């Protein structure tokens, strides 16, 4: 039997039944008024699925910056648990890349979509595959899992524990210091920064602005794209 994960102060965990999506459970419980800081998680051994409920005290355009925090938390956790030669990067807005291939990501939802409105809740979920989804190795060369990247020793619950600690730490930084520190930590790990991209807009991804919006330059025009556009609708 898997030992229950230990969470840092201010956070608490609740396991969900095996065939229940922790993200869906977190959203339904957030609507019902569950405590901020509750993490719903699956104990499945082939993938880590977990979702954190937050009760932001800022407008959505600031609260949504916690999505970057969750990514940093995941990268730092993998950095701590994986072999040192395994590089972890981000692909905007929500993918995690290990050794250059997508290895899960984050998803998020709130009860408002207006950037200036204060959400009652924000749910941020993570999804990290541990073993191959397909029986055919190399079938999807742009997709990977931790086992294929030499991280077979990592246990899902150990990664969950580590993610919760690193994410709480960076949430504290975000609340105390604003977005700049989070941005400075996130930027060097962004795989498509400075590159020509097709999605979500064609152009060169030149960086993030002070609100965490993507800056895409096409010729002399620079357009902003918010994480809010990629939130899941409830």
UniProtKB/TrEMBL annotation:
<protein>
    <recommendedName>
        <fullName>BPL/LPL catalytic domain-containing protein</fullName>
    </recommendedName>
</protein>
<feature type="domain" description="BPL/LPL catalytic">
    <location>
        <begin position="7"/>
        <end position="187"/>
    </location>
</feature>
<dbReference type="InterPro" id="IPR045864">
    <property type="entry name" value="aa-tRNA-synth_II/BPL/LPL"/>
</dbReference>
<dbReference type="Pfam" id="PF16917">
    <property type="entry name" value="BPL_LplA_LipB_2"/>
</dbReference>
<dbReference type="InterPro" id="IPR004143">
    <property type="entry name" value="BPL_LPL_catalytic"/>
</dbReference>
């Amino acid at each position: 039997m898997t030992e229950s994960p230990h969470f840092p102060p201010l956070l608490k965990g609740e396991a969900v039944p095996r065939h229940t999506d922790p993200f869906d459970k977190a959203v339904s419980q957030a609507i019902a008024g569950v405590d901020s800081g509750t993490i719903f998680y699956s104990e499945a051994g082939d993938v880590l699925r977990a979702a954190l409920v937050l009760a932001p005290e800022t407008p959505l355009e600031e609260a949504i910056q916690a999505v970057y925090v969750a990514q940093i938390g995941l990268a730092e956790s993998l950095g701590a648990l994986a072999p040192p030669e395994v590089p972890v990067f981000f692909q905007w807005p929500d993918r995690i890349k290990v050794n250059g291939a997508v290895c899960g990501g984050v998803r998020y939802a709130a009860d408002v979509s207006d950037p200036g409105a204060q959400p009652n809740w924000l749910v941020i979920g993570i999804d990290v595959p541990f073993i191959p989804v397909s029986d055919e190795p190399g079938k999807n060369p742009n997709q990977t899992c931790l086992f294929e990247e030499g991280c077979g020793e990592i246990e899902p619950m150990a990664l969950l524990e580590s993610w919760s600690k690193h994410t709480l730490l960076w949430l504290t930084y975000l609340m105390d210091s604003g977005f700049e520190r989070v941005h400075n930590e996130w930027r060097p790990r962004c795989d498509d920064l400075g590159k020509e991209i097709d999605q979500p807009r064609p152009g060169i991804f030149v960086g993030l602005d002070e609100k965490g919006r993507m800056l895409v330059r096409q010729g002399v025009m620079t357009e902003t794209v918010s994480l809010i556009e990629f939130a899941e609708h409830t």
